[in-house]
Amino acid sequence: MxxxxxxxxxxxxxxxxxxxxGEIIAKVAxxxxxxxGPEIVARDMAQTVLDALAQAxxxxxxxxxxxxxxxxxxxxxxxxxxxxxxxxWHETPLRALIQRHIDKPVYIAxxxxxxCVAEAVAGVTVGTRSSVLVTLxxxxxxxxxxxxxPFVGAHGVATEIGHITIKFDGEPCSCGHLGCFERYASATxxxxxxxxxxxxxxxxxxxxxxxxxxGELTAKMVIDAAxxxxxxxxxxxxxxxxxxxxxxxxxVNAYDPEVIALGGGVSAAxxxxxxxxxxxxxxxIFFRTMxxxxxxxxxxxxxxxxxxxxxxxG
Amino acid sequence: MxxxxxxxxxxxxxxxxxxxxGEIIAKVAxxxxxxxGPEIVARDMAQTVLDALAQAxxxxxxxxxxxxxxxxxxxxxxxxxxxxxxxxWHETPLRALIQRHIDKPVYIAxxxxxxCVAEAVAGVTVGTRSSVLVTLxxxxxxxxxxxxxPFVGAHGVATEIGHITIKFDGEPCSCGHLGCFERYASATxxxxxxxxxxxxxxxxxxxxxxxxxxGELTAKMVIDAAxxxxxxxxxxxxxxxxxxxxxxxxxVNAYDPEVIALGGGVSAAxxxxxxxxxxxxxxxIFFRTMxxxxxxxxxxxxxxxxxxxxxxxG
Lengths: 314, 314
Known about the structure:
The structure is a homodimer. By secondary structure, the first copy, chain A, is α/β, with parallel strands linked by helices. Chain A contains ten helices and 13 strands. In chain A, strand 9 and strand 10 form a beta hairpin. In chain A, helix 3 (111-122) packs across helix 10 (304-310) and helix 5 (187-200) crosses helix 6 (205-212). Chain A starts with a strand and ends with a helix.
């Protein structure tokens, strides 16, 4: 049977028709425009499923279910998505809104959880039964598989990896707490530290790159400056990979998965990120002489959200 | 069927014959004296099982298995207990050593994991499918049940709760890292902070109690000083319960269990500990308006290790 996977983001909806092996056979995208409200956006989401089916030359009868990865969580006790902060939505009965248009089972999961499922079906964690996906983007997201199944906890609030405290008197976080992992391991952290470095070293590569980019700084610019050996950027990136390793050690101590996969924008740095993190992790885990999780780069990129959503089951 | 549970500690061996309902029908104890080496101690452990069976008027035929809770972990891939630091043992083939004397299945788990199982069978978490036990003692230990089963991770190193980093530039830990949860939430942390308070306030209750106790300070003395309103002790205990709440919030963000049970020596403070922790936890968790874990006191005390070990299965 085929399933549909919908990756619902703040700016775009990406929908695919996916085989059981995790292959996308048709793909449709449209803008979210969330200010139109959940009812209209859900109608568009359903339409992308129908359009993708048509593109694949398939009918609704061949579709087993629809999965949706959302930048939030579902409250499993109520079938409601309580917060979609990026979209400005609250208490959204997303499943029911989709089913108004297509009468199929609808499964909803956090987008990082969906991506973690995708990597296990068709990406870097194929063949494993337990894995953690850490997305290093504007924030830090996380998905966890235990015994081959998405782990969401008793109330659906587990695996909130980005908001695990790693320095309880540290950087203030948008969530209102101090020292969350995402304050140290996100692209936003690289930009924050990069701006400090640019101010301290106006002659350095980060400041130069910013000046060439109308004063804007991206995580990639910081990483590129480190790659060419700019001393402040090298020092900053070294601190960043230490922070990341500290957070990954917390995940080893908590979940002890077979693999931790790094995804999201920062993971595009590839081996330049992976090598120091692999080297530093043993300095921060508790059982240094026991086997522990391999650290790998996620491989599915932007398609992970669609594939993983399509793999969701009841 | 009956099973035997052995709680192996650095100073003592406590063994019980336990019913399927978690009731201890016979109990035997003896000193560990670990310096005698694993072979001799394992012989004594097997003897406690035989003695407890005799005490209960039961035979080996009525015994299904033997479970052992150890202050360490088993490497499931090798059937070896790699570290029993308290006992000074390394690479101990504990299962095989016991089976030399009694030919029954032997299951080994971390002692906090065993206690977590016990609380779910006969203690405060009866009726739950997911729970975390946090033992607040000399260190901080942890056990986790997911889907009703002990969760140990892919390599047996999961739920190393005491060594989760909550302040990566914080207090040095015996494990060689900085800012581990147990540096802030153990009895040892209360004693460390209590000694600082005694030095800063020689007129205060903590200093007085120390002087009356030949200069020795216990966590109970610090808590008792806070209970009677000594200002430095109250301030210190307030900081302690905040730190504990921060660590428990990490556990909510990671595991999202139904219940987190607090055990170990510090939990003897009862409601004086429980009430501020319950009050502060919502200040530190991410999804404040979603349901989250109840915080409770463990109820089985010292018998938890025996009962939980006896409940271990393959």
